[in-house]
Amino acid sequence: MKSNRRKFLSNLALSSTALSISLPTFARVKNEELDSAIENQSGKQSFNMCGYAAPKLETVRIGIIGLGMRGSDAVERLSFIDGVEITALCDKYSDRVSKAQNILEKMGRPKAKEYFGEEGWKELCESNEVDLVYSPTPWQMHTPIALHAMKNDKHAAIEVPASKTLDECWQLVETSEQTKKHCMMLENCCYDFFELLTLNMSRQGMFGELVHAEGAYIHDLSKDWLFNKKAYVDMWRLKENIGNNGNLYPTHGLGPIAQCLNINRGDKLDHLVSMSTHDFSLNNMAKDLASKDNFFSEFVDQPFRGNMSTTLIRTQKGKSIMLQHDVSTPRPYSRIHLLSGTKGMAQKWPGPERISFGHSTVKQDELKSLYEKYSPPIVKHIGQIAKEVGGHGGMDFIMDWRLIDCLRNGLPLDQDVYDAAAWSCIVPLSKKSVARQSKSVAVPDFTRGAWINNKPVDLTLNGGGTTQVRKIKV
Ligand SMILES: NC(=O)c1ccc[n+]([C@@H]2O[C@H](COP(=O)([O-])OP(=O)(O)OC[C@H]3O[C@@H](n4cnc5c(N)ncnc54)[C@H](O)[C@@H]3O)[C@@H](O)[C@H]2O)c1
Predict the structure, then answer these.
(1) Both ends of the chain: CA-CA distance in Å?
(2) What average pLDDT score do residues 147-161 get?
(3) How far is the CA of 231 from the centre of ligand 1 (A)?
(4) For ligand 1, mutation pick of 91, 94, 135 (most atoms within 8 Å of CB)
(5) Of residues 100 and 27, which shows the higher confidence score?
(6) Which domain holds residue 10?
(7) What is the mean pLDDT of residues 49-58?
């Protein structure tokens, strides 16, 4: 990409290397200043994608890249939605494409065009039969796929996290602005029922001024998933946990609380500090498995990331956020989802769901009334059907339906490219802070000032709500 920002980055990188050769201590300070300049380097938005409404698409033709565990579920879910055609399917492995064709058949949908091989995704992005590229692939493919899709006149919907590096975050932002194509990160947790309830309650001022929020991805994936030969293809997710010491999966926890705090839409993430523990289990597990099965030998004595990563973020307006990430100790699943304000608080995990406006939490019947009164229109409109279709209790389907309904009605998406970048940049920035003994690291303003006037996420269904759901017996 030939933008001024990227020239600026390479010039700075050159000058910082030169500085570090002869003056170690001074240079270290200088390098940190330069790094911070790199991360905050602003330039101007070429176009504001926040609130951007693309031209309506009566039928949304979807190409799905990545047909593993998540992708095959997406084929089924999207098949329920009217106004959708799944026109293209792609995976590195052809048998996965065939299995996805079987799902289409089961759902009463026509066969899709097939793409496979390591680079088949490029052809799919370049094809004429797709409006939206939907991609549940391993993490390193999200940004390249989204960039190629947008450059070839397609909207992009990519799984979480959107990017692994800061430079990738900026590439997504610049490309979405230049092409005026949506780049949505598929953060399904923003559409879970308690999260939507508390988003609307925050908007109505029920918690007063929000002061602090917490989120997490705490899910013991180690034995049954990371080290399971039949789970993530080519063991990609175990490999991600090697040599990457930080929060690798921040967006499930951060997305919903960022929406409550109006991040990029009235406030912004300013800086963070991050700390990781040592690894106390993954290498032991690798050794244990390798002693019985040579397949696991390559994973022994690798630099596994610490079990628990904790990040603290301060926002421009002085709010704080705590994020945690742990996929390798035996704890119950938790995304925490805690909101703490001047008038009340909410917390989802550990269960039960709790809301309080004082010293004690409200009773179950009051919580039920709050659900009835404050669940936003999308829940009332599609929540019950979503529970029946499924996908993490329904939130996956609410997300898919809303994405399609917005594209069909020419509405702005709830999650834009700035959200994708700001929520995903915690991956590289937490790693950087950990590597520097938890030093403070600036979070870039991907909106380049537009956060001050950007409107909060629209919780109405105004202008939309027209997309029907098919009655299919699965
Ligand atoms: N939002 C959620 O709740 C949620 C849940 C699970 C997974 N995910 C995300 O979904 C993504 C996929 O995860 P998964 O669990 O399905 O993993 P998976 O390993 O089951 O599937 C990944 C698929 O991508 C395919 N792939 C790999 N390289 C490819 C290439 N070059 N071209 C085309 N296809 C290629 C693989 O063959 C595989 O079928 C990940 O980014 C993960 O973080 C999100």
Answers:
(1) 46
(2) 98
(3) 10
(4) 91
(5) 100
(6) 4-40
(7) 98
Number of domains the chain contains: 1
Residue 341 lies in a domain: no
Predicted local confidence at residue 25, as pLDDT: 33
Residue 200 and residue 458 in contact, taking contact as beta carbons nearer than 8 Å: no
Dihedral (CA of 233, 235, 237, 239) sign = negative
Length of the chain: 474
* pLDDT, tens only, 354-368: 999 999 999 999 999
Q: Report the alpha-carbon angle 162-67-222, nearest 5.
A: 70
| CA 66 to centroid of ligand 1, rounded, Å | 6
User: Would residue 48 count as lying in a domain?
Assistant: no
pLDDT digits (tens, 9 = 90+) for 60-95: 999 999 999 999 999 999 999 999 999 999 999 999
Cis peptide preceding 161, ω within 30 of 0: yes
CA atoms within 13 A on the CB side of 146: 37
